[in-house]
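User: Fold both of these, please.

Assistant: Here is the first one.
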Amino acid sequence: MKQFSVFFFLFIFLTIPIQGQDNPGGSLFIIGGGKRPPSMIKEMLKTAGLEKDDYIVVLPMATAYPEEATRSIAEEIGAHSDTKVIGFNFIKGEAPELSRLDSLKRARLIYITGGDQNKFMEVVKDTPLHEAIKEAYFNGSTIAGTSAGAAVMSKVMITGDQNTVEEYQDFKKIWFGNVVTEEGLGLLNNAIIDQHFIVRGRFNRLISVMAEFPDHIAIGIDEATAIVVKNGRAKVVGESQVVVFSKPENLSNPDGKLVSFDNLKFSLLSPGDIFFLEE
């Protein structure tokens, strides 16, 4: 009987999901930029599941105006919650204070502002700050971001630059290898995020990057719209739409530039719709 009990409890222990790199306990709230309607702010706070002693950390390193950006989102949150909002503007090349890193790891909601995603990652990439954000996410925190703060969520990050620039043209052709990408936070490993998507007509850019990374899901989020990601499931919230590309067939670029493929999987999703981030 004793031996049976040992094996029984060992079986239970081994089958309990353990939070880790492949099983995050937190959520992502990825906003496509533009205005943030009150309903979206409420949904973000609901997603975070804030309790009495929780607090929110704003990371404004993407913007040239960190104090103003922090104040703006703090005011929007303050209209719906009395949760404390703290701004941590970490500086490139400076060792982050351990007390701030500890506070970041324990924040129930981390919000990354808009601006320049490259600027943000120059401060964060491969630093203790990067690890602190990931640790918070995998231990149950919600990581939110808008515009540049949305772009940094994925491992493959669209920088906004292109390799071949023609006069007066901005991604006017769907060319293989034209979209410049860098490494982002890696909170999404199998998806690539583009923002301000429908308003700014970024279809060519997203199709181009999908052709370069055909095993990824390419997600374009419009302004005033967000996706809420939890356990591989994404729900659309806000006021506009989300575009999802995936699984191109017979992909080729015979002349080294122009892209060809068949049977692209395409979804146009509205608020309330759900899709899955397939592996």
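And the second sequence with its predicted structure:
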Amino acid sequence: MSFLSGIEKRDNATAGLHVEIFGKGAETLVFIPGLGGTTRYWKSRVKTLEHHYRIVLVDLLGFGESPKPWTQYSVERQLQELRASLRSLGQITLVGHSLGALITVAYAARYPGAIRKVVLIGMPYFGSQQNAYRYLRHGPVKGGYLFTNVGFAMVACVLTRRLFGRLLPYIVHSVPREVAEDLVKHTWRSSTSSLWEVVYRYDAAEDLDRLPGHIAVLFIHGSRDLMAPAEAVERLIALHPRWNLNIFPGVDHHPFLRQPEACLELITTN
């Protein structure tokens, strides 16, 4: 059997991202998940806001229910698809987790007039591919070398999807069941290309520095986040006193899953 599934055709055309919209409020909150995440990362936890906000949940290109073309999953390609989906929403608050936080920064830098506030949850920042490799290979992340070898990462992705996909909810206990179930809703191409092009090679610092003063910037981080060390974010914001950082003690890479109510309070505070 080929490693390429039926949806991994060599075709750059897409039919639009998968988007879910609910709620009746005048203010719009858009949520962008991280690598391997889907709309279900947020959905059950943001329902309490639907009476006061319009909630928009998006699956990034290559993940969840969105198209998965054979393409380079670069920052610019993700922004192209995301802009087509968000253009008609007016001014928004954009909330991103992990890889989604990096996409959030890039989107806000390119379309600042459409952004009221950005919330960056567990945003990884390495500054360069070399720095990312150094941290993952020699830092506290177990099996970090796997994440920096594209061949190993590809094989691991294929094996996870083909052999262990249905078992993940019973194996992975660190995230809710629905989040674990959706960890296989991508392809090896979308997963590895997104990791290298966005997390390793994109320098978010340049776009963060470009953000105009009217955009509020909020970082939410866990003190025990190994995948995205808080120290890197602290260095980023040291010269930007108008930005806000909230570090949750004892929390890992998923503050929104561990303390959703506290995160929502921060997100909706003007």
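The beta strands are 19-22, 27-32, 53-58, 92-97, 115-121, 216-222, 244-248.
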